[in-house]
Specification:
Length: about 300
C-alpha cells in the first residue's frame, strides 16, 4: 500500500494580482495560507500554498501570482477544473455565500454527486462537491466558516483532453488508478490507496481548442507518494513507459519529479516528507516570508521587489 500513489498531493495554478488571489482564497473560501514563499525558479514572484490546518497533502492549492500576466484560456491539454470536497448539506450555504460576493455559479451533478461550479477572480474553474463517500478530514475553520461548511480538501482534478487513451494508460498502468465509470465523454478514475483526493476525471473532446497558460489556468498537478525512496521507484516506472522525467528536485517542503503526460498536462510526483512544518511551527504557518537557502542572502532585495499584499 505504501508504495502506491496516494491520490493528489497539490495542485498549482497561475494568478495575476497576488493580493487579490490571497484575499479570495483566505477570506472568501477560507482556506489557510500554510506557506508564503517565492517561486524557487523566479524569486521575484510569490508562491502561495493554501491548505487545511496541517497543510496535509491532498488539500494544497498553490499559486504563482505573476502580476500583469493577464488571463489565460482553459482548453485541451490542461487540468481545467479543481474539485474541492465540502461537508454534506453545505452547498446551500456556499451558494448564498458566493452570491453575496457577486460570484456567478452553476449547479450540476456528476456521477451522482451534487456540485456547484464557479471561477476565482482570475477565471480558474472550481467545483465544490458533496461527495458520496464520507470525508473525515479536519478542515481549517475561520470566524465565518465553521466545520459545517469549511472546505475539506480536494475531491478531484479534471483534465480536458482531445484524446483520452494515452493519458488513461499512464494513469492506470503507471500511477495505479482504475476507471470507475464513464458518462458521455467523461471518464472517472480512482485510486483505492486512499479515500480522499483520490479522483481524476478526464473530459475527452477532440474538438476542444488548446488552452493557453496564464492567469486562471492550471500549471501542474502533483500526485502524492510517501517518501523519496518510493518517488525514485516511480521515476523508473515513468521512464519505462517511454516518457521523459526530471531528476529529483528539492522543493524544501517535499521532493519532486516532473513529467509531461502524453495529453499535455504537466504532472509532478511529490513526497509527504518533510512537510510544511520543517521551517516554522504549525501555529504560525504562512505568517512570515520563507525563502529557500540560496535566496536568504538576498532577502531584503527580494522583499522589496515583491508585490504589496498587506
Ligand atoms: Zn508542484
Amino acid at each position: 500500500m505504501d508504495t502506491k500513489i496516494l491520490g493528489l498531493h497539490h495542485i498549482t495554478a497561475i494568478a495575476d494580482q497576488a493580493k487579490r488571489n490571497l484575499d479570495f482564497y483566505t477570506q472568501v473560501l477560507g482556506v489557510r495560507l500554510v506557506k508564503k514563499t517565492v517561486n524557487f525558479d523566479d524569486p521575484g514572484t510569490y508562491h502561495f500554498y493554501f491548505g487545511n490546518e496541517q497543510g496535509d497533502p491532498g488539500t494544497i492549492l498553490t499559486f504563482f501570482p505573476w502580476e500583469g500576466i493577464g488571463k489565460g484560456t482553459n482548453g485541451a491539454g490542461m487540468a481545467t477544473h479543481i474539485g474541492y470536497s465540502v461537508p454534506e448539506g453545505s452547498l446551500e450555504f456556499w451558494k448564498n455565500r458566493l452570491k453575496e460576493h457577486h460570484i456567478a455559479l452553476a449547479e450540476n451533478e456528476i456521477f451522482g454527486e451534487r456540485l456547484i461550479s464557479f471561477t476565482d477572480p482570475d477565471g480558474l474553474q472550481l467545483q465544490f462537491v458533496e461527495p458520496k463517500a464520507k470525508d473525515n478530514r479536519t478542515a481549517w475553520t475561520t470566524k465565518e466558516l465553521n466545520d459545517q461548511h469549511a472546505l475539506k480538501g480536494f475531491h478531484s482534478i479534471t483534465l480536458s483532453l482531445k484524446q483520452a487513451d494515452p493519458t488513461l494508460k499512464i494513469l492506470t498502468d503507471v500511477l495505479g488508478y482504475s476507471i470507475q465509470g464513464q458518462e458521455g465523454g467523461r471518464y472517472r478514475l480512482i485510486t483505492d490507496s486512499i479515500d480522499t483526493a483520490n479522483i481524476v476525471d478526464i473530459i475527452e473532446d477532440p474538438n476542444l481548442s488548446y488552452g493557453r497558460n496564464a492567469a486562471g489556468t492550471n500549471h501542474h498537478v502533483a500526485f502524492r507518494v510517501k517518501d523519496d525512496n518510493i518517488l525514485m521507484e516511480y521515476r523508473e516506472k515513468v521512464l519505462s513507459a517511454g516518457l521523459d522525467i526530471t531528476p529529483k528536485i528539492n522543493r524544501d517542503y517535499f521532493f519532486s519529479l516532473y513529467f509531461r503526460e502524453p495529453g499535455g498536462v504537466l504532472f509532478e510526483l511529490a513526497t509527504d516528507n518533510p512537510g510544511f512544518t520543517v521551517d516554522e511551527p504549525l501555529e504560525s504557518l504562512g505568517t512570515t516570508l520563507k525563502l529557500p537557502k540560496q535566496y536568504e542572502n538576498y532577502r531584503s532585495q527580494i522583499e522589496a521587489g515583491l508585490p504589496k499584499i498587506d
